[in-house]
Amino acid sequence: MAEFANKDLRASRFDRVDLSGSLFRASNLSAARFRGVYMEGVVMRGVELVDVDINGELQNVRINGVDVGPLVEAELDRRYPDRAKMRPTDPAGFREAWQILERLWDQTVERARRLQPSLLHESVDGEWSFIETLRHLVFATESWVCRAILGDPSPWHALSLPWDEMPDTPGVPRDREVRPSLETVLELRRDRMAIVRTFLAGLTDEQLNDHTKPVERPGWPPAESFPVRECLSIVLNEEWCHRLYAERDLAILEAGR
User: Fold this and answer.
1) Segments making up each domain of the chain, as ranges
2) For 192, which of 91, 113, 141, 201 could close a Cys bridge (C-beta 3.0–4.6 Å)?
3) Global confidence as pTM
4) What is the dotted CATH code of the domain comprising 85-254?
């Protein structure tokens, strides 16, 4: 066990480091950035949280004894009336959710078109650019629909982009340097979205409640069986959340910051 006492570790970078069970006492974490960090079971006492921005999944998160997760969920549903429809329970509900997502993404893409093309490759506060966001959604569809549900062992296009923390996996692309045009990525994205639309058009209750067959080749998701409902829900969540991230960043780019 390493121990750091009275040390100046400012601007340190921890990449794929296991800090589980660590103790932080009288430590300064001002301006720290946490990305893709797993924090289950974290306990904070006597902390000062000022000007803190948290984006993530909240379950059993208590602040001063109050579980804030349900409060946040209720407020998000109030702000975005379509959000509740992203939790469908039957095939018709999944079809409706996908129609909503296609409509909302059409609006977001039109907003992006009004910017200079170079800005669509620009990162805001270290997040994915607009183009990278679209590429990641292509990856999500290929992984959870084309591979997990439809059984294609290697469905990824060269432009597909997994999440940053995913370990390098044979056969799975990860090119952060390429700069495809918006139209090139949209053509790929339209193709993948059509695959989802077609699958949902024929989705039955039996299929929705079924499990996938493991794909016995390296890739993502791993060679396991998953509920079809879970696979589709993951895609809906990815689409919904990343559109909001994109809208947030487009507003900053529009403001010239």
Assistant:
1) 85-254
2) 141
3) 0.87
4) 1.20.120.450
